[in-house]
Write a structure and sequence with these properties.
The protein is of the alpha+beta class. The protein contains 20 helices and 20 strands. The longest helix has 41 residues, at 2-42.
Length: 529
Amino acid sequence: MTELRTTEVDTSHFRLRAIVIGAVVFLAFALVVARLVFLQVLRYEDFAERAESNRTAIIPVVPNRGLILDRNGVVLATNYAAYTLEITPSKVANLSDTIDALAEVVDIHQRDRRRFKRLKEESRNFDSLPIRTRLTDEEVARFSAQRYRFAGVDVKARLFRSYPLGEVASHAIGYIGRINQTEKAQIQDSEDEANYRGTEYIGKLGIEQSYETQLHGKTGVEQLETSAGGRAIRRLSGFAATPGSTVMLSIDIGLQKLVEDLFGERRGALVAINPKNGEILAFVSKPTFDPNLFVDGIDHESWNELNTSIDRPLLNRALRGTYPPGSTYKPFMALGALETGKRSANTVIHDGGTWTFGGHVFRSHGSALGAVDMHRSIVKSSNVYYYSLANEMGVDLIHDFMAPLGFGQMTGIDVNGEVRGVLPNQEWKRNAYRRPEQKKWFAGETISLGIGQGYNAFTMLQLAQATAIVANNGIKHQPHLMIGTQDAVTRVMKPVLRAPPVNLGYKAANVAVVRKAMVGVTQEGTSTR
């Protein structure tokens, strides 16, 4: 009886074990089936895409950059094709040894090494970086024959920017350069990220920077079938890139070069504006620089020479340099006197060569002029006349009249980097200084403002715009450098729409007095010679 019970217990335990083992086996098979369903059904499209990508590659096609022309169609910026020898640092075991070995195949100079080192510091490790640009056909052939020795090194055909006229109008045209990490981050955060895939160069200054969107174009795409080694076998599909638009400037490059040549080695700036429409005909900042230096990465020696030069050739003096306008301010002071009723054109002031205020003697730049009316004050550039006028008007009235003319204001020109300058008034001084004793405006500080000195600091662009307003009888146009774009596909020229002109409301008789005197300056006055 006892043996029978023992047998039944053993049988029960066996059945339990069999059930547990069967459940485990069933659960294991269920997990395998679930995994297969997950991989082959739910993740089918994902893995199919990955499998497809193992034999295909999506390659962005960078568009040709648009041309830049002057108003007469003279080419100021264009492109040319050339071969570059490039290294991807992440694919190279010993970078220094690789470069030394490459130098035995093609010419690699110290400046090439220094430029490569700087580019490597500014780029990611997996970027392809040029160690040599503008390879000759012979150099391409020599490297191609020994390419098997250099993993991570390849020859690429690229378009390079070219500025045929070199230094002429370089501050207006600007230049392009390799995209740095800051610019990459900005592009990645923008809506243009997809359009800049594959793009390595971007506008850095001037028109190249300000009209980057128009000049860049639309990036295309190619889907290529690739071999196991990653080599392209054939093109499967894609769409072509759309070249950037041609940008036409208002600058007359002949006039621009004439003015630059007249400056010679002297520092300075000049802006010539068409008063009727705000088009800038010449935009000169001297000394200039050669934008071609920046195209494939400027070498350290050239950069150091430009950046440390006492002449500061990279400073756009027409846009960013601020200076006291001196006697060129006097015609605007005269117009302000007429418009505010502080003086009539016939009011006569005695110019004895000096003018005293608060115990301080303000002197003229030359001899005494005697009796001076408004016309003669401009023609002969009388300091005494404008010392006294500034005192009568006061700093705040001067400020309120000069601001609409554009002094100390942003003109809205269509290139980046403009500075405001300083058109002083009492509020400006309160905000500009920290110590209480410095915040107060003193009446004596107003006197020198009348002859364009003191705190006055304006750009040449602001002075040119104000002069254009007077020349145009008080009608104000926004100054601009670009007059139109030409579509690369349709070849249709599209003019740029500008803000409508603003009538500052000056009386025609008042403007006529000042204009006549300004002509007199060149015929019988201080600039006759």
